[in-house]
Model the fold of this input.
Amino acid sequence: MKNILLSKIFWNEFHEPVKSKSSFIKKNVMLSIERLQIYEFDNLAYKYNENKGLLTAVLGNFSNWDELKLKYGNNLKNDVDLLELIYLNNSLDKMNDFISELDGIFLLYIYDENIKKVYLFQSIFGFSLPIYYYIDSHGIVISTNLKKLLLNVNIEREFDQNALSEFLGNNLISNEKTLIKNIKKLVTHSFFEINLEKKEIAIKPSSNKVPKINEKKAKINLISSIRKNIADVAGYLKTSVYDSTLTRGWDSNLIFNELKNTNYQKINAYTIDGGNEYSEVKEVKEIIEDNENISLYTHKINKSILDFLPDIVWKYEGFVFEMGIFLRYDLAKYLLNGKTNHIFVGSGADPILDSNMGPGGNHALQQYGYKTYKSTLYHLKKTLKMGIVGDIWFKFIIEETDFMRYKRKTFNNKTKLMYNLEIEYNLKMHEILFNEFSIAGIYPFLNKNTVSSANVLRKFNHGKNFYKNELKKLFGEKKSSFIKKTGKVLDTNRIYYENIDCLKSIINSAFSEKILDKSNLKLIRKKPDNYKTLLIQVAYLFLFSHIFLDNNYDDQFENNHLNLSLSDILKKQKLY
Done:
């Protein structure tokens, strides 16, 4: 099982077989939904109320379940019934506002036969999985899985060149585009309203209301809001055995510390051992101390990890690239061996708490829009980086590498960051992969109360200074001495040099000439060692094109894994 949604909404009734095992189909609307079930309230994926003419479905979770039950009735057994109740208790002109009652990371699907409308809402942080869609004259197909979507649409597949350029520069596409032309995604801070009667599809801005709070209360509430969210979510789990990543960083240690304060039977802590200078195992062992109810599992990154790149691309489907995806892939496989169905992670802490991160600092709920926000220091810095001042600064102060300069000058000046990409990046990089291994990520820092406090405390939280000082008081001097910001845990140089022949075969191929500027490509081919990460990213895109654009594996799209190595595919293409 994993979280996956596929919906086909046509203006006319279906006259063809649906290419999916649909859970619900009626006239114009088909919904197929599968759900990971790890909480006390997620035993349903969808519900159709024939008397009310209402279909409701939920993916993800509500982290304020107790508060919602208190308001709507303690007899509620699941969140799908709650969604139905909330929808029926809100007037139609205030549809967008009812999201403000819900906290967590979720995707909500509502089909109201009475008014012939379909809604698709996501939390204020977006959903943890992409929401892909394709629109044509017949209607719309929506899915959280690109392979599912492609099986249900008939299009000529080719790269979207503008999206490709941004992906090469930012490792993520900030707007509604994807790497495939005419396949789009629903961006953060927006929702679908689909009117079957008028045959209209509208994408509207979401309501992003959070509680208002003053500075004095924010200082008290910042840490307590995170601790409460950890304790609440842990209490909703169907197990008292908790699984959590653990590093020597502040964020995972706050989660671990709070889990120890709950009513638990056992905690399984997972630490990646990068080897030598990248190992955090020694510090983590000091942090855990001797506790028979806490098990520490360490794992070294697979030396041949790049050979798994086809399966990694198969799972990420071209949504995001970063060297950290190899770490997440190895971790997810390791967790699966332990039969874990959930994992607490500190992802999202930095863009919520650190004033230095993202457009406008930690303005987590900055509205998506078709303009660049010019009122922030972030954009001033970005402008300077592109000019002569930036060239001097990077060359003599930062000692910029050829690759850094190439990325800065070639791509980053072409994009407009229209909302805080850091949350999107962190959330999707983890959850896309976890979900493919049937594991639910839990992200305690992504909650409205923490956002409320963090936004008020921006001037104190450069580099998360206020947050760290508060944690030092909580942890005490001894434990705090072992904690520092988590460093690099993946040796990019090792991955590159162990696979240099494969990577050079791709950068020297005709494919690279299709996606990179010829003058830049000449420099890269001349000194490939100066562009290690770029060569790996080009390999990622080569595989994306081979798998998703060339129709080579459509007959395997229902499979969870692609059991081919990088070298297998290169030999098949006669490149290696």
The first helix runs from residue 65 to 72. The CA atoms of residues 131 and 144 lie 5 Å apart. Residues 367-376 have pLDDT under 50 and may be disordered. The longest strand covers residues 54-62.
